[in-house]
Amino acid sequence: MVIDDWSNPLASFTTTDANGCQAACAANAACYFWTWFDNAGGDCRLQEDHDNPERYTSGTVQDRWRLVSGPKFCECYEVGKRVTGDVIAAFPTSLSATKCQQRCDDEPLCNFFSFSHATGNCTLHSGNTTVISDAASITAAEICLRDECSRGFHNCNPEASCNNTDGSFTYACNAGWDGDGLTCIDVDECSDPAFPHNCDAVANCTNTVASFLCACPATGWYDMSNNTGVNCTSGVGTNCIESFQVLCGSTVSVSSDNVAGTAAADVCAFAAGEAATLITFDWGSGPWTVGNQQYPERSYHVSTCSSTTDFDSQDSVTNLSDAVCLGTQADDGASGCSVRPDAASVWLSGTMGEFYNVRVAGTSGSSGSFSLAVSSNCTCTDSKYTLVGELCNYDECALGVHRCSRRTDYSNVSALELGDPTVQTATCTDTDASYTCSCKLEFEDKGVPMGMEAGLFCEPVKCAQQPTFPSNGVLSFSDPVYTFTTQAETAFQCNAGYVLSTSTFLPSGKMDCFGTSQTTSSWPAASAICEAVVCGGQTPVAPYGGVMTPSSPPNGINWVTGDSVTFSCNAGYSYAGPSTLSCEGVEGASPEASEWPSHSAVCQGVPCTGIPPAPPLGGTMNPSVPPFDGVTWLGGDIVTSQCNSPYHTAGGSPSKSCVIDSASGGAVWDESGYVSPTCAVE
């Protein structure tokens, strides 16, 4: 089935479905009907008109249902629906829904039609109908009214509005454009009097596409277009007023005169009949508060007290938002203004966002020049806030009311007693809105990987180059909890009797673990030794009848801290006293010192029996008396004899010994072979 000559279409191409074919017809001005054949590629043919009869040109009867044909606009078809009732005509051999719709259009009484793909049956209906489901059918009204505007089938200018009508459409240029709807040109409201703007007389007008922008002058003027008294981006430049601001703690002076003053009387009704000039100042624009910032309590002092004011002035002040009289003054008097007692001053409280009109008038017709000074004083009402510029800031960092990471310092005893033993492990930085935290050097942020804000969970890192304990000393940590991590502090300390010697200068032997990066820290490269001091006190000696081991200092020079000796007695002697002595450091001594303890080391001998030796005539005996106590000779004693000059040994034994009897344990002078020595003169 086709609408026109199948062999000579307007255009022929392939498309995947009937919708694509219809869209191509809609885009082609000469196309009115289209036919799409569900063959291998999806053959679409565009036809010029609908005057020729529809024809099925090839294929089997069943192939006809693979054809879809329709007019350029056919969105009103309802596929899968069939109309029943009030049948006014039936055509069993219609080949398409398009032909069936055309038959309905030709029949004056027809309002609806139904076409069955399965049978080719076309039925025409008047009005009293019922719609039922039928997968093989298509139904629609007599005429599909198209909406050229919504479907884009119009030639309106892109900057024009399209209005659909019955069977057609109209067009008109949008606001900001001028033309007939087919052609639309942007108008310049700023320069074309035919299209006036509503900018304030002092505002700058800037033309934009289809519109314009108004902006009050950047300096000395404020945009009151939104009627809030606040200079902000919501203003549109349609109401600009001249004003100035006075910052906290500053004074702004304005010179003018009332010679030709035309300011009308204000709500204060003060000096209403006098020539007056109006001066405006404000607290009308930022800086805006952020976070927990607050506006200060602000007061103003307005005065004409100046040597340049040359007439008797009177002042009244009103606000702009609701025209309330805020104060009046005629004369300050000499106490108020010594340079101009007839000057006038007004004090008032400021309100954020407010504008103030100061009316400076003469007195009894006086006029002249004046200088109006406006001073501003700001105070933060909350003691926790500090005035910074024009705002009151809440410094969480300085007040310590932040969440930046901290840890307990167990070494700070006084802080522990006061209940606040913590130290910061993160840096707190105050901002206008709040504060930020960042882990200090050598503290690693463990919170960020867990989704926390930065600087809330900062953990110390392990220290490299851990120091070792010195021999005869200790490492003393200031905080027993933190010993090998960031900010740990330790000191080399020696035991009593030893002095500290370090490889590098360390005051009092102290050193800290310091950060080398955000994730690393290290102890300084230092080592220490504890050197023994010379030992004082009672130096030990070998007891009589015994030995001391070692018999001399191990270093060959001095006995020092840590040296020790042991005592033992020779055969025949029994020991009385400590068997071992050590040189010990003196606790608390300054400078360091060590001592041998007081002691008594005695080897007690066995009294010797028998005939003791006697010195020869003309000679001496060594020892001359018992060495132990000068009274009793003891086992093991040995006595030698010698002759004095001019005597010489004439004979006899040179020595005599007191020997121990191992059987009895007693001691006796050995007489075996002993001959008393004699001395003679040559």
From TrEMBL:
The keyword NADP does not apply. InterPro entries: Apple (IPR000177), EGF (IPR000742), EGF-like_Ca-bd_dom (IPR001881), EGF-type_Asp/Asn_hydroxyl_site (IPR000152), EGF_Ca-bd_CS (IPR018097), NELL2-like_EGF (IPR024731), NOTCH1_EGF-like (IPR049883), Pan_app (IPR003609). It comes from the Eukaryota. Residues 549-605 form the Sushi domain. One of its GO terms (cellular component) is extracellular region. Residues 186-233 form the EGF-like domain. Gene3D superfamilies: Complement Module, domain 1, Hepatocyte Growth Factor, Laminin. The keyword Methyltransferase does not apply. This is Sushi domain-containing protein.
